[in-house]
Fold this sequence. Notes:
With 31 residues, the protein is an all-alpha fold. The chain has helices at residues 2-16, 18-30.
Amino acid sequence: ADTHIIHHAGHNAHRDNPAAVIACLAQILAS
């Protein structure tokens, strides 16, 4: 489930702001 959410969020964020993908992943890894 988590991997699906990461992929979905990252895919959408990449369209507008690639940096958002990194921030999203970083937050998940930090949690």
